[in-house]
Amino acid sequence: MLSLEQAQAAIRDRITRATRSQTLALSDAVGRTLARARVAVVDNPAFDNSAMDGYAYNAADMASTQGRLPVQGESRCGNAPGMLTPGTTMRIFTGAPIPKGADSIAIQEVVQVADNVAVFPAAAKNEDFIRRRGEDFRSGEVLYPLGHRITPMDIALLAAAGVSQVEVFAKPTVLVVATGDELVPPGTPLQAGQIYESNRAATIAQLSLLGAEVIDGGIVKDNPETLHSVLAAASNYDFVITSGGASVGDHDVVKQVFAQLGSIEFWRVKIKPGKPLAFGRVGDKTHFFALPGNPVSSLITFKLFVEPALKTWHHGVWTWLELTATTENDFRRSPGRMEFLRGRLRTQDGRLYAHALPGQGSHMLGTLRLTNGLIKIGEESLGFKAGDSVTVVPMTLELS
Ligand code: AMP
Ligand code: MG
């Protein structure tokens, strides 16, 4: 059985990379991945400008005038830079161009103005308040490499750099199917023995946030022929993700059907939850993930395997943030598999604490209400005691 790292490495090595790209308006590009490195169109700042509201002057004029300069003209945002008349000072506002002939800004708080004459304090030489052209980035500078996924923060930088369009990879197409005779969608009353389908619903939601194009294959019965007919079109998609039926039960037909349609690269990973998971290929471009049916296993294996696969497919390098936290309670376990516990992370006085939530069964969703991170426990570990250090992975930065 593969370890987590071996399974992730196998996925990284086998995933094909996106080839199709499209050009999008910057306003449509959040969550998408650059198919070409993006350079700045302009310098930022585009011109020398004032960092403060105040007065622009030439430092050389100070000594001869004892710091008293008549105020002449003003520099406002949106105007082209004017010319400072020698021996005068110009009113200036934050972001406005530095007039030609000026080399200093005094902030208005330190300047006294009476009868249109500005009196500067003796030590006024405040070049600091000039934002220099190009000090942030320069025209032609590479801002982002190919494979970078665009965040809302990146939209600010790209817009400021004069980028109106970006070339991004076409969205990966992902067929999502839930398998199980017991599953019905929420909204219909449950008959005896039925449960509401939640894995496909969550998988679709996660994929949408990751910039994928989801094809909802619905709920399919545990019947090899039916499943085969639904998955027959698998090779049309970049990814196929199923949930359930990947274990060893009599009705676990997913692996069998994938083995007919393509090839299984690995099955089972030494982790808890999520051991029965299959990864493989159909045709020359389609990757499939047969995720386990237990809802928590499905969520965690999506994070551990599908997210890195999508990142790699997009020519990116997947990492996640592992931090050290102090535990707030005890947790005992038997060694053998790497384990991920649902945890509640919090900070206090600059330290990170983790609480292993009660209700860790992989069928138990109630705990998700409080989950904002995972506690990662090594294969050989027997658990931990309150006050021990553990490795945690934040899952959301929203802590309430
Ligand atoms: P399986 O992997 O098919 O053996 O399913 C394991 C457990 O997860 C069973 O209790 C299933 O009822 C449950 N399960 C499987 N698929 C889903 C799903 N899509 N939504 C919610 N529960 C599921
Ligand atoms: Mg099942």
Describe the fold and architecture.
It contains 7 helices and 28 strands. The protein has helices at 4-14, 60-65, 152-160, 199-209, 224-231, 254-261, 295-313; strands at 21-25, 38-39, 49-50, 54-57, 68-75, 89-92, 104-107, 112-114, 117-119, 130-131, 142-144, 165-169, 173-179, 183-184, 195-196, 213-220, 239-243, 263-267, 271-272, 278-282, 286-291, 323-327, 331-332, 338-348, 351-356, 373-377, 383-384, 389-394. The longest helix is centred in the C-terminal third of the chain and has 19 residues, at 295-313. It is elongated and about 95 Å long. A hairpin with a 2-residue loop joins strand 24 and strand 25 (351-356). The model has no long low-confidence stretch (mean pLDDT 95). A 6-stranded mixed β-sheet has the order 7-4-6-5-9-8. A 6-stranded mixed β-sheet has the order 16-13-17-21-20-18, sandwiched between helices. Helix content is 18%, strand content 31%. The chain has 4 domains: 4-19 and 171-313, MoaB/Mog-like domain (Molybdenum Cofactor Biosythetic Enzyme, Chain A), CATH 3.40.980.10; 21-44 and 137-169, Molybdopterin biosynthesis moea protein, domain 2, CATH 3.90.105; 49-131, Molybdopterin biosynthesis moea protein, domain 3 (Molybdopterin biosynthesis moeA protein, domain 3, Beta Complex), CATH 2.170.190; 323-394, Beta Barrel (Beta-clip), CATH 2.40.340. The chain is of the alpha/beta class. Helix 5 (224-231) packs across helix 6. The chain binds adenosine monophosphate and magnesium ion. Residues 178, 180, 182-183, 195, 197-200, 243-247, 249, 252, 292-295, 363 line the site of adenosine monophosphate (AMP).
